[in-house]
Design a protein that fits this description.
The protein has about 290 residues and is of the alpha+beta class. About 25% of the residues lie in helices and about 20% in strands. The protein has four helices and 15 strands. A hairpin with a 6-residue loop joins β11 and β12. The longest helix is centred in the first third of the chain and has 23 residues, at about 45-70.
Length: about 290
């Protein structure tokens, strides 16, 4: 994703997919056009939750390793290498690699890219922001998380967007409780974002995760009463608000992955995988 003459991102050069040692177990969708339909439950046993926590911790530590390398001049391709190498060194498969044909081991979404940016020869510049989204697969389960990093020093407006998007995630997690419908999460996030006139992306949501990368359970980030699934103790899903300085409308590039704001306004995102507990929620994607 290099930039054009006015600073907007354009598609860059994507290198070949990275290799994964043969001893690392692959998700069932590798080599297929898509995953098999998920027929399991979003509610997990304590033993399975601990396995999801292990995958989530690997993903979180991989993001920390990537984040330590984010400085002006680094390419998103190099960030992909760092994240990939960390996961395979810990016997985890990068869940995005080969998922529905996705060619890389993480998503790197820069500035106006909302999500699913493909690492390439884009050189990060001072003042950019980049969202790193990593999912690790180990012991038959996925752990999914993302963090938006500021490259060098950004404007106050952009820095506040990043800080407030992180806070939106915190508030969404605090809204989790058994017996509540999942739409309370979105209502909480949108109410907070509206205080700053931020756009809230609607068409890309949180989701059930664990034995499936995406189980079919939808966790909205806006007030959406139609999503009325009741949260239960042991239920595992992600919350991952995407806020923008402008519109919530989006476009997608011809690669069928890179989603960006229609008005090319800056956008940030944060995500955790969590489990519903009797007292609220516990984050499963901590380092």
């Amino acid at each position: 994703m290099p930039k054009d003459s006015i600073g907007h991102l354009i598609p860059g050069t994507v290198s070949s997919p990275r290799s994964v040692p043969s001893h690392i177990v692959r998700p069932e969708y590798i080599g297929k056009t898509g995953p098999s339909p998920f027929t399991g439950s979003d509610v997990y046993s304590l033993e399975k939750i601990e396995l999801i926590r292990e995958s989530g911790s690997i993903a979180a530590r991989a993001i920390a390793a990537v984040g330590a390398a984010i400085v002006p001049g680094v390419t998103t391709e190099e960030l992909d290498r760092i994240g990939h190498d960390y996961m395979v060194a810990h016997d985890a498969y990068p869940s995005t690699l080969g998922y529905r044909g996705y060619p890389k081991s993480l998503c790197s979404s820069v500035n106006e890219v909302i999500c699913h940016g493909i690492p390439d020869n884009t050189v990060l510049e001072n003042g950019d922001i980049v969202n790193i989204d990593i999912t690790a697969f180990k012991n038959g389960v996925h752990g999914d998380t993302n963090v938006t990093f500021v490259v060098g020093e950004a404007s106050e407006e952009v820095t506040l967007l990043v800080e407030r998007t992180r806070e939106a995630l915190v508030r969404g997690i605090k809204a989790v409780a058994p017996g509540r419908q999942v739409n309370v999460i979105g209502r909480t996030i949108e109410s907070y974002a509206k205080r700053f006139n931020y756009g809230v992306i609607r068409d890309y949501t949180g989701h059930g995760v664990g034995e499936a990368f995406h189980s079919g359970l939808i966790i909205p980030h806006y007030d959406a009463p139609q999503y009325d699934t009741v949260m239960e103790v042991g239920m595992v899903f992600t919350i991952e608000p995407m806020l923008t300085l402008g519109t919530s409308d989006w476009d997608i590039w011809d690669d069928d992955w890179t989603v960006l704001t229609r008005d090319r306004s800056i956008t940030a995102q944060f995500e955790h995988t969590l489990v519903v507990t009797e007292r609220g929620a516990e984050i499963l994607t901590l380092p």
